[in-house]
Amino acid sequence: MTPVSAAIASAATTSDPPGPAEPARSSDSAVPQSMLERMTLIMNCFYGKAVRHSIEDVARATQLPRSTTHRILVDLVRLGWLTQTPAGYGIGSRALSFGSDGGYGGLRKATAPLLHDLAMRTGMVAHLGVLVDAEIYYLDKVGGRFATKVPSQVGGRAPAHCTALGKSMLACLPPEQVDRQLAGGLGRHTERTICRLDTLHHELGRIRGRNGMAFERGECSPAVACVAVAIRSADGPVGSISLCGEAGTPLERIAPLVVQAAREATHDLFGPARKNTAGRKHPPELGPTWSVEAMNALLAIGSGQDWI
Question: Which among 245, 67, 288, 295 has a CA at the least distance from the CA of 145?
Fold first, then answer.
C-alpha cells in the first residue's frame, strides 16, 4: 500500500472523540466523521477568496467542534498548508504550490481587468501578488515588450522586503508581525536592497504616510523600478497590485493609477454588500474542493505521523 493510500485509508476511518469541555453530538448530526472530510471542509473555507478567518469562523462554517477545528488548523499551519497571523488563518505556501490558483480565484477575477487596463494605458508590466510569510507569490502578470526583462513569473516568488509588492503589504501589518515574518533575515539582492530591519521599518512608515504607495528602484533587480499599492480587507492586506518599468521610469506619475486600481479591487471584493450587520465578513460558502493532487500531497505528508 502506498503512503498516500495508507494515509487516505487511515483518515477515512479515524474520528476524534469530543473534548472534555464539549458535549457529544447526536448520531444524526451532519458533522463528518472521517478526518479526510474534516480536512476538506476546513480547506474549502479558504478556497476562492483571499480572506483570513478566525477559529470561530471556520468552526461555524464547517460545523465542527471548536477543539477539533483548532487541532487541525494548528497542524495545517505547521505543515505549511495554512498560515496564521493576528488577523486569522489564511492560505499557506504549500497550498499555493498545488491547484490552479491556490484558492485565490476571487482575487484574480477581481483584478484581471484592472491589470490589463494598467498595462494597456502605461505600456508597463502589471502584477498581482500575495504575501506568504517572508515572500511574495505572483498570482498574475500582464505586460508588453518589457515583460521579458522583468524577472517575475506567475507562480514564482520574490523576497517581500525588497519588492514594492511586498513592502506595500508589510506596511499594513503591525511591526511585531513584520519582525516575526522576517525573522530569517533580510537577504541582499542588489546594492540598493534594504538589509537592516530598522531601516525597513522606517521605509514602511514612509509607505503608510503615502497612503500605502510603495516604491522600489533596483532593490530586487537592478534594472527595474516598481510602484505598488495593497488591496486590504478589514483584517489586513489580501494582495497587492504593482506596475513595473525600466529603472528610470517616473513612478510618481503613474502611481495614482495603481492607487485607483487597488481601490476598485478592494471595493469589488469587500464592498458593503459583503459584510453582515456587525461589520464582519461572513465565511465564504463552501465551494469546489481542492485539487486531487493537492489533497493527495497533503495526506502523503501526514502519513506515518499522528498529526491529525
Answer: 245
Residues 17-55 have pLDDT tens digits of: 443 343 344 433 566 667 878 888 888 887 655 567 889
- Coil, strand or helix: which one is 240? strand
Residues 148 and 217 in one domain: yes
**If we measure between CA atoms, which residue out of 195, 116, 187 comes closest to residue 157?**
187
Residue found under cell 461555524: 60
> How many Cα atoms occupy the beta-carbon half-sphere of 10 within 13 Å?
17
Number of domains in the chain: 2
Domain containing residue 114: 105-273
pTM attached to this predicted model: 0.62
For residue 280, the 8-state DSSP code is P
Place of cell 500575495: 130
CATH code, domain with 209: 3.30.450.40
- Please give the mean pLDDT across all residues of the chain: 76
Same-domain check for residues 80 and 128: no
Q: Are residue 90 and residue 136 in the same domain, yes or no? A: no
Name the strand (E) or helix (H) holding 179. helix 175-181
Verify that 42 and 92 share a domain, yes or no: yes
Task: Say if residue 217 is exposed, middle or buried (CB neighbours under 10 Å; 0-12, 13-18, 19+).
Answer: middle
Q: Are 45 and 53 in contact (CB under 8 A)?
A: yes
CA distances 183 to 134, 138, 176, 178, 282, Å, are 8, 22, 10, 8, 33
Which tens digit of pLDDT belongs to each residue from 42-98? Answer: 888 876 555 678 899 899 888 899 999 999 998 888 887 887 776 678 777 666 655
Q: How confident is the model at residue 114 (pLDDT cuts 50, 70, 90)?
A: very high
For the cut 70, the answer to whether the pLDDT of residue 305 exceeds it is no
Whether residue 151 is found in the same domain as residue 76: no
- 68/191 same-domain check: no
* Cβ within 8 Å of residue 255, ≥6 positions away: 213, 215, 227, 229
Do residues 150 and 122 both lie within one domain? yes
